[in-house]
Amino acid sequence: MRVIFYTGKGGSGKSVISCATALKLSELGYETLVISSDPAHTLSDALETRVQHTPTKIEVGGSENKNKNLWAVQVDPIREVREKYSVIQEYIVSLFKSKGLDEVLAYEIAALPNMTEFVALLKVVEFVESGSYDVIVLDTVPSGEALKNIYLPTLLGSTAAKLIKMVAPLAGIAKIVEPIVGLPTPSKEVINEDIRLMEILGRLKDIIIDRKVTSLRLIANPDAFSVQNLRRTHLLANLYDINVDLAIINKVIPEKVSDAYFRGWKDAQAKYLVEAEAAFHPLPIKRLRLFQSEVKGLGLLSELGNELFGGGDGGGDGGGNGSGDGGGNGSGDGGGDGGGDGDEKEPEDPAKIYFEGKAIRVEALRRGQGLEVVVPLPLASGDKEVCEVERMGEDLSVVVSTEIGEVRNFIPLPTIAQMMRLERAKLLNGELHIYFKDEKDNGRK
After folding, report:
1. 214 phi and psi angles, rounded to 5 deg
2. Number of C-beta neighbours around residue 32 at 10 A
3. Residue 338 banded pLDDT, cuts 50, 70, 90
4. Which pLDDT does position 432 carry in this prediction?
5. Which one of 22, 136, 170, 189 is most buried, counting C-beta atoms within 10 A?
6. In sequence order, what DSSP letters do the residues of 229-242 get, joined into one string?
7. Backbone φ, ψ for residue 351 (5° rounding)
8. End-to-end CA distance of the chain
9. Could you report the per-residue pLDDT of 366-409, keeping only the tens digit for each?
10. Residue 319 scores a pLDDT above 80
11. Strand order from edge to edge, sheet including 214-220
């Protein structure tokens, strides 16, 4: 089982690359499902098929029907919440209405920010546990928000679940004090629904941090803003202990384009490509050429997938009808330049794990003197970064402020670390080292 998340700055070509990857996987015989939470219905546009809120079979191969393995889902968050989480939503609405809000406005506010993406993640759990698919490809929202949603189970899961379970037995008593506090109290049904949701979030977390199952793939255009966004996303993913196995630089102007009008663009792209490859090493980077037209339809998606993962004509610009939103180019570390010599590339399996970085690890210090928690931060040099580490109950709050922005995460501590005191933290060679000392050593010299 494989789960592949694609994320990147808006306009980087996530939807097209997600669809091309899913199509390539289905051509290799994998039962493949591509999911989108984009309200613009980009899956329907790219696949030129009306994609429903339930798995929609994408017919590939015409009358030959040679490929029956591709499915697509366009998440409908309103329907999902209404069908599965309406009890919680109605309680939230009742809270707002009790404070005098109009019912229409109360429902609007109850549709919390990022609800679409959140529901899409819950659907991942449903489809993984169904066992119906070999690979699930998720076309996510732009980078920063996507990662916050992906790691929401860890930020909420354990503490929230414990709190809700503690409150559950008191649901009946709470109704007695409702007139006093002036707010509706949650019913037992609401609390049970909350507990069920927390359990789903816990299972989602297990899927996301399993490096043999889940990979995050980053997409950027060769410009300053996209590359900076990619760096922040990569840093955040490592802090969240999510494996990033591949980066794709999209819309690279092919070498054969020699028009003077594009000279400045090509020079700038060359600069950012070099910067990206240096910054993300040893993470594999593929390049996708800028096609001559928009990628829509299975034919062009297949061409893009072949250029990205091999298994067909190299194509290059000789194809004549690629896409501005996608576009593909050589594979492997760094890819090629989209020259389009037409040579067939060695086919790859897009389901493979291209790279497995270091996970957050806990190491015992010598002579039982404490523990060291190591958080890989490959883009943090220690020169300009400022780290704040604070203990918060059973978790460790880590904030890294860098030139590309501030990122934060809560890292669950092993039981033994909860009996130790936090001593110090430092950035060293792209890793954040956090040291805990045994309380028994306080009086030792």
Report:
1. -110, 135
2. 28
3. very low
4. 84
5. 22
6. HHHHHHHHHHHTTP
7. -80, -10
8. 52
9. 666 788 888 887 666 555 566 788 887 777 888 877 665 677 77
10. no
11. 56-57, 70-74, 32-36, 135-139, 2-8, 214-220, 244-252, 285-289
DSSP state of 410: E
Among the listed residues 398, 361, 372, the one whose alpha carbon sits nearest the alpha carbon of residue 155: 398
Verdict on whether the full-model pTM lies above 0.85: no
Nearest one of 215, 217, 241, 220 to 230, comparing CA atoms: 220
Rounded Cα distance, 166 and 444, in Å: 40
Q: What is the mean pLDDT of the chain?
A: 77
As a residue count, the chain comes to 445
Please confirm whether the linkage preceding 254 is cis (ω < 30° from 0).
no
Do the strands 361-364 and 32-36 form a parallel or antiparallel pair, or are they unpaired? unpaired
Specify the residue for token string 């410009």.
223
Looking at domain 2-95+110-161+207-319, its CATH class is alpha beta
Sign of CA dihedral 144, 145, 148, 153: negative
Task: Please tell me the predicted confidence (pLDDT) of residue 379.
Answer: 63
Domain ranges of the chain: 2-95+110-161+207-319, 361-441
Chain centre distance of CA 371: 30
361-441 CATH, one of 1.10.390.10, 2.60.40.790, 2.40.160.20, 3.40.50.300: 2.60.40.790
The span from the CA of 409 to the CA of 387, in Å, is 12
Q: Which two tokens stand for residue 156?
A: 């909420």
Ranked by mean pLDDT, which of 260-264, 322-326, 385-389 comes out on top? 260-264
The neighbour count for residue 170, using CB atoms within 10 Å, is 12
Cα→Cα distances 8→35, 204, 306, 377, 410, Å: 16, 21, 21, 19, 23
Instruction: Report the amino acid identity of residue 140.
Output: T
What's the rounded Cα separation, in Å, for the pair 226 and 218? 10
Q: Between 284 and 335, name the one with better pLDDT.
A: 284
Paired tokens of 12: 């980087």
144, 152, 143, 139: which is closest to 208 by C-alpha? Answer: 152
